[in-house]
Amino acid sequence: WHLGQRFQNGHERLAEHRSFLDWLLLTIEAEAVDVLVVAGDVFDTGNPAAAARELYYSFLAQLKSSTTCHDVVIVGGNHDSAATLNASASLLKALRVHVMGGVPAQYLEQCIVLPHGAAVPRLVVAAVPFLRDAEVRQLVAGESTAERDERLRHGIAAHYHALADHLGHYRALDVPVMATGHLFAAGGTAGDAERDIHVGTLGQITADAFPDCFDYVALGHLHRPQVVGGRTHIRYCGAPIPLSFSETSHPQQVLVLTFDGAACPAIRALDVPITRELRRFRGPLEQVVQDILDHNNAGASHATWAEAAVESGLPWALVQEQIREAWQATGGRVQ
Fold first, then answer.
1. What is the DSSP string of 189-229?
2. What pTM was estimated for this model as a whole?
């Protein structure tokens, strides 16, 4: 979600996130969703502003009155502080919100049987948060980059296999098992807004790292919706709002999974309504000015935020002046 993100020059995104969460509440009811799973990066920073925290808690409090959603599973991402998320975990558990900010001391606590407290489980979640380097491998003096890479990838895969060893028996009972993760899968496509989790290609794992007992793997970190390794049950849902100008070429969406026993679920993507458009205007000065003037912001709740890349032989001050005049002529439709 990246609640509390500030865009270029410090512009707030709270109104957009509030619109998304309001839509999500309505969608959960309309789709009769039983369980909501959030695969990390709840907040944009480890120390989110009070307004971002209020938005988070307000959403969860409103969700308690849902007539369909009985449990929520939230794991921490690389943007999140495990301590910040876990600080309210005990309280939120009373609302049947299961928070896994970081890897717990007792790693089997990541195994969540749902509905919570039910005699007969309907879903089991391996709630794996962002795995930090020190949590999955031991430091070895003098190791090369390649050796470190191999140890890191092996440690991540071993973490999932250890959990799978404790969950595989549920599939024999025809209970579906899903896992979460917050990582960079090999072959994934990133944008401008994702922070490097590890240096270079370190930590990139393949689809083979996830054991076969997982009927679905919900991944976070990459903001573009995508499937991993051609396996439709291992995928990124993506971010609910575009977080940079590079994220305007793909839809923002949530995924609805329908399980029918221990098997890959039916998967439907629902597009999230965009309340603020991010636009890139590129080309010769005359074309960029005309494109700005012609831009149609109808139906959007907020003014479009634009980035202009201009080809011109004029002094930069004159280019800026013409672009500024075009923006002002839109009456606030473009900023």
1. ---SSPPPSSSTTTT-B-GGGS-TT-SEEEEES-SS-EEET
2. 0.86
